[in-house]
Design a protein that fits this description.
- Strand 7, helix 7 and strand 8 form a beta-alpha-beta unit.
- The chain has a single domain, classed as 3-Layer(aba) Sandwich (Rossmann fold).
- The chain is built from eight helices and ten strands.
- The protein is globular and about 50 Å long.
- The N terminus is likely disordered.
- By secondary structure, the chain is α/β, with parallel strands linked by helices.
- Helix 4 runs parallel beside helix 6 and helix 5 packs across helix 6.
- The chain binds adenosine-5'-triphosphate and magnesium ion.
Length: 250
């Protein structure tokens, strides 16, 4: 579902979480003068250009924009999965984009969760292992118990020993959400988390994301074409011509 400007500008009824109510909250994500280009010579493609972004703790932020505008690229850079061509990203005051891959991986493990449109579960591992192993690798003190609790929270207590191919799309995305929230990250990034799901399953995933966001005070950064998801957020930012602009609510 594509967002129209009228839908984006419609007043929201569920905005009980506005950043203006928390003027003193700390900045969790700060991106300054972020640029990203790919290719070389005459075939250079400028995806992000001098982009600025500041997100406060606990905010729910939607990033929208047309296909190819660079949303996934931006999310990947904010999450340290990719590096900018220039500019800086810091997460909870830690400069991030200048670190090497190992150091970025350590920071991702410590502060971030990521939910992809295509779930990205490891097919040879059970649901439980998919949630538990990343925590084990990051030195979490109780990976088994925490993974079990996290899967129970997304309603999959009975399906922990199943492999991804034995689970429906909605169930696989719930495993991915359990994995992303398990270590209680400060920030959860999600790239079109409902994009591969039908309406009913998409609805369940949205409910789950916002429920876990409330319980854990997680900062949510969501890329989405889904108007239901964007309208639940505190802010909607549109990516166009390599820069973000904020939608003003009427
Ligand atoms: N490694 C790369 N090499 C060349 N071009 C790339 C690379 N990564 C991204 N692009 C291009 O950069 C642009 C932005 O891609 P991106 O995936 O970030 O868009 P998007 O806004 O997420 O799109 P969609 O809504 O379709 O998912 C696209 O034109 C894409 O083809
Ligand atoms: Mg994308």
């Amino acid at each position: 579902m594509l967002l129209s400007s009228a839908e984006i500008n419609a007043p929201k009824q569920t905005n009980t979480h506005s950043s203006s109510q928390h003027p003193t909250r700390e900045t969790v994500i700060l991106a300054t003068n972020l640029s990203k280009s790919v290719g070389s010579g005459e075939h250079i493609l400028q995806i992000l250009q001098d982009l600025q972004l500041q997100i406060q703790a606990g905010e729910r932020v939607a990033i929208v924009g047309s296909s190819g505008s660079g949303k996934s690229t931006l999310l990947g850079i904010l999450a340290g999965l990719d590096v900018p061509s220039s500019g800086l990203v810091s997460i909870q005051g830690n400069a991030f984009s200048t670190l090497d891959e190992d150091a970025r991986a350590a920071m991702r493990g410590q502060y971030m969760g990521f939910v992809f449109q295509s779930f990205q579960l490891l097919p040879t591992m059970t649901a439980l292992e998919n949630v538990m192993i990343p925590m084990q690798l990051n030195g979490h003190p109780t990976p088994l118990q925490t993974a079990q609790e996290s899967l129970a929270k997304v309603g999959l207590a009975e399906r922990m020993q199943h492999y991804p191919k034995q689970l429906s799309g909605g169930e696989q995305q719930r495993v991915a959400i359990a994995r992303a929230f398990a270590a209680k990250p400060a920030v959860l990034f999600a790239d079109e988390p409902t994009g591969n799901l039908d309406t009913a399953n998409g609805e369940k995933i949205i409910e789950l994301l916002f429920k876990l966001n409330q319980e854990n005070s997680t900062t949510l950064v969501l890329v989405t074409h889904d108007v239901r998801l964007a309208q639940r957020c505190d802010r909607v930012l549109t990516l166009q011509d390599g820069q973000l602009s904020e939608q003003a609510y009427a």
